[in-house]
Amino acid sequence: MALNLVIKRSLSTSSPMNAVIKNVTVIGGGLMGSGIAQVAAQTGHNVTIVEVNPDLIKKAEDSIVKNLARVAKKLHKDDPQAANKFVSESQARIKGCTDIAEAVKDSDLVVEAIVENMDVKHKLFKNLDEVAPPKTMFASNTSSLSITEIASVTKRKDKFGGLHFFNPVPVMKLLEVVRTSETSQETYEAFMAWGKAVGKTCVTCKDTPGFIVNRLLVPYVAEAIRMMERGDASPRDIDIAMKLGAGYPMGPIELADYVGHDTSHAILQGWHKKFPDNPLFVPNESVQKLVDEKKLGVKTGEGFYKYTK
Known about the structure:
The chain has helices spanning 2-11, 31-41, 54-75, 80-92, 100-103, 118-131, 147-151, 185-197, 213-230, 235-245, 252-259, 261-274, 285-292, and strands at residues 23-27, 46-50, 94-97, 109-112, 137-140, 160-165, 174-179, 201-206. It is of the alpha/beta class.
């Protein structure tokens, strides 16, 4: 029911408010990129997905079609014809491309959703800055890197900001809109309007490590792991305590396994390198051990807990 309301609200807001952003280019067709492309397409935007080869484009498009079918089934459960129309019209707004210059030639907004590596992002945005029209706004979906630093290689810092979606994008309602000291008011307002147009609840944050959610969540999980490392409490008891005592749907150790220890460890390592005096950003030794052993959590079948398929 809640999902239906979000989708209906999204479909009804795709006009004058977000007219400034109609053509969207998503760089990266992985889990986050394909999700961003989906919510944009299903709310009336023209979307171009950029990947390095046709096989990855097809993989992204196939994933989007499957997810659109799920959305359509919930939205039009008693009307198969309307469901099919929703899927086909949304699908028709999506195209794939391996040529960045071609992909951004008419783009109002480029959203980057590639690997969390500053050098790779710099190379991408430097190229984008040279080939994209002057009107095109840039955004990164990074969850942990500095937007200001990513934008530093471009000449359009006033048209650059962060649009941090959450996984899975079609389901999670939150969008963190991150503005740097150089993001213009016009760009910020366009990002906020577009975020609402694709059905998200937007919150604003300055360009601080982890923005809002990860700045609070990552140190919280790390501190729970430190409790476990000291022997203060068992992983299971820590999780039960936070679920029953704080009302959290998942305990911090469970959450660490769910997110993936490679991901959370990389975030803490990056923050610790940049802010070595902040004790909240010190990486966990036990997590480093799990990463070394390739026990990354749910996705590998074992982390702090073991999982059976």
